[in-house]
Design a protein that fits this description.
Blueprint (H helix, E strand, L loop, with lengths): L3 E5 L5 H22 L6 H25 E8 L4 E8 L2 E4 L2 E2 L3 E8 L9 E7 L3 E8 L2 H15 L2 E5 L6 E2 L2 H12 L1
Parallel strand pairs: 6-9
Antiparallel strand pairs: 1-2, 2-3, 3-4, 3-5, 6-7, 7-8, 9-10
């Protein structure tokens, strides 16, 4: 068994990174031009402030194009860390889990986004953490299954309201083996 499990969104498309780099460059240029040779008169300070605001706004949009959501689960030390990553910068804090209960796949049709399946890790009696969202049931179930196998805990299919079903993982393994042969 591995010490750390990584649950991650799909990598950003390359064009997102190009747009982010372009927006960061424009943001830096706006910032530099708005602060270069400021005489500190009231009118120039106001102009520099508008430039600073525009630069921050562009950098904020660029950040949205290059962020990556990941969740690290450290099995040996029984903790997890949701992380927002921008390049090499990782923002997140480790949280301790006293005991893993089960993994569930949940579907909430009341959300505005269509067909979003959530993979939740339940721990410490009634606490849960949303690890992942997918718009494809099979992808969400595969992630949930792999995680439940790695942690050696149960898997719950909670996609149908008021009709939750524990997944028989042994039968699922056997079916997968039969299909691969």
């Amino acid at each position: 068994m591995e010490s750390t499990i990584l649950v991650s969104e799909q990598n950003r498309p390359f064009w997102h990174l190009i747009v982010a780099a372009l927006l960061f460059t424009i943001s830096f240029c706006i910032l530099f031009l708005s602060l270069y040779n400021v005489n500190w008169s009231a009118e120039e300070i106001k102009s520099a402030f508008h430039g600073l605001f525009a630069a921050i706004f562009m950098a904020f949009i660029a950040t949205g194009f290059c962020t990556q959501k990941r969740v690290y689960i450290d099995i040996k030390q029984s903790r997890f860390k949701p992380s927002l990553e921008i390049g090499f910068v990782k923002i997140g804090k480790w949280k301790t889990i006293k005991n893993y209960q089960y993994v569930s796949v949940f579907y909430d049709p009341s959300k505005n986004e269509s067909d979003l399946f959530e993979v939740n890790l339940w721990y410490d009696q009634n606490k849960h953490f949303e690890l992942y969202t997918r718009n494809n049931f099979e992808d969400a179930m595969l992630i949930a299954y792999d995680l439940s196998e790695e942690l050696k805990i149960d898997l719950l299919d909670a996609t149908i309201k008021n009709k939750y079903e524990w997944i028989n993982k042994e039968a699922l393994k056997q079916k997968a083996n039969e299909q691969s042969s």
